[in-house]
Structures are given as structure tokens and as C-alpha cells.
Design goal:
Endonuclease III, domain 1; 11 helices; globular
């Protein structure tokens, strides 16, 4: 029955991509642990395809201590060297080191705001932006809002948080609903 549903074109025929599209993408996410997981995955996706990062999700979960920012923030150069040998993740020294740096910055935001979700959702006044795209070609790769969030995260010590990565993060975390209006998930996500 899922195959008969009209959905956005970007998942293609990949089972992981379809499952992610149909169950996660665009769902308003306010759980700090999941938001941090998305940051980690988006960090490693930078310059690559989302499909590559998503297909290595289980490897990232194991390598990065179940996406626990407190544990990741304590990782050392020894951990970086070990992770560079782990074929279950994308092996990139700068991204591994960036994830450790981002964990520390994430914890600082939690301390300041009470939660990362509270900090993040304030940018959209706690309400998902409901876009009304009829074609994939009208969906931008960034926005003034992703520019602002990117700039603020960089100021707070994050890395690999350029405006394009942040816009993808916003889509995944449900700050924007970029499902095509013809997609079966558009109205479902709109109601969340």
C-alpha cells in the first residue's frame, strides 16, 4: 500500500530513504537527544548525499555513544584516531572532531536555555513553518531563517553548520514542512 501513496520524489526507491521520509522527515522534533542525532548526521552529510549518512546511521549510533552529547564531549584524540578506522561511519577527521566540538556547544546551549529544543524552536516562535510547494524545484537549499540559525550556532561554537546544512536540519526536525502538497505526508505533518 505504501508504494501506491504519492510522496516527495527525493527518497527514490531506497528503503531507508522511504522509511525516513514516511516516518521522520518534517515531524516537529522537540527531543534533545534526537535533535543532537540529527546534528551529528547532518554534520557528516555535509558535502555528501543524505542517503550515505542515513545508511550509516546505525554505525554512527554505535561510534558516537548512542548520540549522547555528554559522552561525546569527553572524547579525546585517541577516540578520533579509533573512529578514523571505523568503516561503519564516514571517516573524516574534521567531521569527527567537529562532532566532539558540537557536543560541547550543544551542552552549553542546554545549560543556558534549559534545552536545545527550547533554543531552536524560539527561532520559529514554537510553530512549524508550513510551506506550500507544488514542485521540488521550488524548495530552496537555504533561507533567511537558516542563515540566522547558522550564524548563531557558529557564534556559539558549532562547526559544519552552514546555512544549507541547517536548512536540511530544519526540514528533518520539522521546523519547516517542505513535503510537497501532493505528498501524503504533507497534511499528516501539518497536523502535528
Amino acid at each position: 500500500m505504501n508504494k501506491m501513496r504519492k510522496r516527495c520524489a527525493w527518497p527514490g526507491s531506497d528503503a531507508h530513504m522511504i522509511a525516513y521520509h514516511d516516518t521522520e522527515w518534517g515531524v516537529p522534533q522537540r527531543d534533545d537527544k534526537i535533535l543532537f542525532e540529527y546534528i551529528v548526521l547532518d554534520t557528516f552529510q555535509a558535502g555528501l548525499s543524505w542517503q550515505i549518512a542515513l545508511n550509516k546511521r546505525a554505525g554512527f549510533k554505535k561510534a558516537f555513544k548512542n548520540f549522547d552529547p555528554k559522552k561525546i564531549a569527553k572524547m579525546t584524540s585517541v577516540d578520533v584516531e579509533r573512529l578514523l578506522q571505523d568503516s561503519h561511519i564516514i571517516r573524516n577527521r574534521l567531521k569527527i572532531a567537529g562532532t566532539i566540538k558540537n557536543a560541547k556547544a550543544f551542552l552549553a546551549i542546554q545549560k543556558e536555555f534549559g534545552s536545545f529544543a527550547k533554543y531552536l524552536w524560539a527561532f520559529v516562535k514554537n510553530k512549524t513553518i508550513q510551506n506550500k510547494h507544488t514542485r521540488s524545484s521550488t524548495i530552496g537549499a537555504s533561507s533567511k531563517l537558516s542563515d540566522a540559525i547558522s550564524k548563531d550556532l557558529k557564534k556559539r561554537g558549532f562547526t559544519f553548520v552552514g546555512t544549507t546544512i541547517i536548512y536540511a536540519f530544519m526540514q528533518g526536525a520539522g521546523l519547516v514542512n517542505d513535503h510537497l502538497i501532493s505528498c501524503f505526508r504533507y497534511k499528516e505533518v501539518q497536523m502535528l
